[in-house]
Amino acid sequence: MRMLALLFLLATSPAVHEDDLFRQLAAHQYDAAVQTLSELPPSVVNVRWQIYAKSKATAKPFADVFRETMRTIDDNTAHRVLWTFGTSPVALRNALKNAKPGTPDYVRRAVAVEAYDSFAAEIPALAAEDDARRYVIQKDLAVRMRDGGTVCALIIRPRTTTRLPAIFNFTIYADPDNNYNEARRAASNGYAGIVGLTRGKGCSPDAPQPYERDGADAAAVIDWIAAQPWSDGRVGMYGGSYEGFTTWAAAKHHPRALKAIMDGAPVAPGVDVPMENSVFWSFVYPWPFYTTNNKTLDNDTYNQGARWAKLNHDWYVSGRAYRDLDKIDGTPNPIFRTWLAHPSYDAYWQSMIPVGDEFAKVDIPVLTTAGYYYGGPGAAMYYFSEHRKHRPNAEHYLLVGPWDHVRGHSGTINVVGAKTMTNLAGYEIEPNAHVDIVEMRYQWFNYVFKRGAKPALLSDNVNTFVVGANQWAHAPSIAAMARARRRIKLDARELTVDFADRSDVDREVPGGNVVDKAIDTANGAKFVDAPLEQPLTMSGLFSCHLAFTTNKKDFDFEADLYELTAAGEYVLLSNYWQRASYNGHRERRVLLEPGTPQTLDFTSNRIMTKALGRGSRLVVVLSVVKDPGRQMNYGTGKDVSDETIADAKEPLRITLLPESWIEVPVR
After folding, report:
1. Whether pTM exceeds 0.85
2. I want to staple 404 with a disulfide (CB 3.0 to 4.6 A). Which of 317, 374, 383, 589 is the partner?
3. In sequence order, what are the residues at sequence separation of 6 or more whose Cβ sits closer than 8 angstroms to the Cβ of residue 301?
C-alpha cells in the first residue's frame, strides 16, 4: 500500500471539508477531491489543489490543466496563485518532519510533499509563460545616471495601450525572486511595477555603496520612468526598513513625478542606524558584508551567527577600542569604519535624507506604518514628527500596531490571507491588530492615483492600536493622543558602573519578551509607581527630566518603561537610549561637567497605546549601557570609538537628584 494511502487510513480527525480534501488526496481519490473542492468556499490557496486534483483525475498533463485554469482568472488572483506555487519542496519536506504522524496536519503536509515533488519542476516555466501572456517584462535594464553611474531596474507592466502610473521600490536587497514578486504584484493591481537597485547591485557594474547615492539615483530613475511612453507621468514610491529610507531619500531631491510615498518601519541613516541616538549597534556590523560583498546578497556571511556572537564577546572581553572590531574579526569592514568616522549627525548623514526645513518641501501624501516592538518603529516617528513640524498641514498618516520590524512594514497577513504571526514574544496578537499592510499599499495608491477610498484605518493623522483593548485609536496629532500625563518621580539614587569589569560577559539576561515574568535591571535602578486605582490608557510618547551629577564627561543611558500587571507580569511599553553628550542636539557633542548639577530632558521615539488595568503599576528601569552588543562609552570625552578599557579607571557614578521624573501620556 502506498504511504499516503496508509496515512489516509491513519487519519482519525472529525470529518470536515478541508480535512476530507486532504484525506482524499492522500488516498489518491482524485475524483472525490475534485468534487470536494467544488463544494468548498472559493480560495486562492485551493486553486493549486484544483489544478493538481483535476490533472490526476483526468490523466491530463499538469501543464495543460495549469494553463486552462490560469486563463480563467484575473491578474491579481493569478499573482496570488503563483505565490502559493512558490513553496520549496525542500521546505515542505522539512515541515513534514515536524508534524505528528496520524494527525490531519501530517496528512496535509505529506500531500503537499507528494504533490510538489510531482509538479515543482514545471512551475518556473509555466509561471513565466503565464506572466508573459499578461505583462510586458523587462529585466536587467541598465539606467544611466547623470554622473555616468548605472542603476539596474526591473519593470513588469500590464499589456495595455493605456498610460499607467508606476509603483516604484528602490532597494539594496538584490533578491531576484522577491523583487520580481513585488513588481508583479504592482502590475497585477494595474500599475507599472518597478524595482530599482542601489548602484552597484544586479546588472550595475559599479561598486555597491549603501545610502550615499540612493536619493539622487532613485530620483533620477523616477525622472526616467516619467519619460517612458507607457508612463502617465506619476510615480508612487514604497518600501520598508532600508527601502523606507529610500522613499525619503528620493523625496529630498523633489523629482516632479513623485506624487506619494508609503514607508514602513523606515530607517534614517545617522538617526537610528547604524547608531541610535548616537549609540552604535553591533548587530549592524555584518550588514555591509551582506549587502556589498556581491551583486546579490551574501547570505552565507551574514548568517554566520556564531562568528558575530564571538566577535561581540571577544571585543567586550578584550577591552579594545570599538574601532578595532574588524581587526578582531580579521576581515576589513571599510563601510562600517566610514560610519564610525561620523559619530555626529554631520553633513555626511544629512546629505542622505531631508533635514530641518527640507521637510517643508515634501508636499506629497505620505503613509508611514510601524510596529511597537523590536525595531518595529525604525525612524517612523522621526520622519512623521519632522514632516509635521516643518509642514503642519502635510497629508501624512501614521499607522502603528503591536508588530515587530518586519511586520511593521508587511503586516501580519500574507498575500493569500493567512496570518504570518500570532504570538510576538509572549504577546498574543489581538484579532483587530492583524493587518495586511502590503494590500493596504494598493488601497493607498488607489486613493492617491485612482480616486479610490482611503484605507479605512486612516481615520485621522495618528492611528494606533490599543494593546489590551483590541481596538484602534485615532488622533489628529501626537500631542492630541493623550489628555493628561502621569508623573513618576525618580527618587534620589546613585548608579555605579565599573566599565573595567567584564565578568558579566556571559550572564543570562532576564526578561526580554514583550510579556515576561522578569526584567533586566543590570547597571541600573528600578522605579515602581503606585498601583492604578482605575484602568487608564497610555497613549503617546513618554518624556523624562533627569537631574543629576556625575564624575564623567559623558555616558550612554537607557530608559525602559513597563506595565507590571496585578498578576505579576511585565509588559513592555517603550524604551529609549541616548548618548548624554548628544541629547537634544545630535549634530554636535556637548560634554557634561563632572561634579556639577545638570539636567537632561528627552522624549521617547517609540510610541505606545496600551490599556492598563486596575492594580497595574508603571515601572521604569533607568540604566547605563554596558553590554557586548553596543558601543561602550567610558566617559573620557574622547571619540567613543577610540576609548579602551584603559580609559575605564574609576567607576562611573551618576547621582540622581530628587527633582527627576518620567511622565507618561494617558487618557
Report:
1. yes
2. 374
3. 286, 289, 290, 293
